[in-house]
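Exam revision sheet. Question 4 asks you to relate a sequence to its structure. Input first:
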Amino acid sequence: MLHNLLHLFDLSILDIIDFLLVWYIFYQVLKIFRGTRAPYMLLAITIFAFIAIIAQILNLSALNWIIDAFKTVGLVALVIVFQPEIRRALTSLGQSRLYRMITRAPEIPLDEIVDAVYWLRDMGYGALVVIQNRMGLQEFVEEGVELDAVVSALLIETIFYDDNPLHDGAIIIREDRILSAGVRLPRSSHLPDPLLGLRHEAAVGITEQTDAIAIVVSEERQTVRYAFKGQLSAPLEKEELLRRIEEILYGKE
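Answer key, structure tokens:
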């Protein structure tokens, strides 16, 4: 029956595969851009493309000249305007299950990190710890003070002690090393609670642009949360935080 239908519409198996691939890519693009300004801009581009086709068919020379002149400039403008969405799309690709299957999960001393952040919480200190996942964070590492030190609870606690000049920024951890401290991170404007502070904005901001995990300790509220994929968790206790981070890092989410 399928063979007869294909013959009726003059289709081949490759035509169907081609259609399904285009549909899947289009669906993924819409899912990535959902909630942003991109769908409206894509609609405008579609209208522009329709006008260009009509101008070509009707051989409207003046309109064709304007469209040809706009093509190169328009392409560059689109890359600039869509820069946040393009970054978001590439980040989503890096967070896909396929990518996780072909890359090695980092070995991180999570017990040391978790012990440190809950000690800081109990002592009333704030902290922001960024754990590198599979995507590199070198561009952010260079924004801080290079340490390249072995991860230990004591060192993390010392960095975020109030009298330490590096305590206001974030630390970035890759595997068993603290790469840098005092790092300034991009801030997000999409927080579930507008009363949350700058550390929470930075935690969400870095995870919107990368696949990193950010642990944030609030000195005012004495809570510990984590951010991943631009989403901020509710306050968590030690065992639950450890379990969730392990799920993310080792592909069990």
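Marking note for examiners. The radius of gyration is 24 Å.
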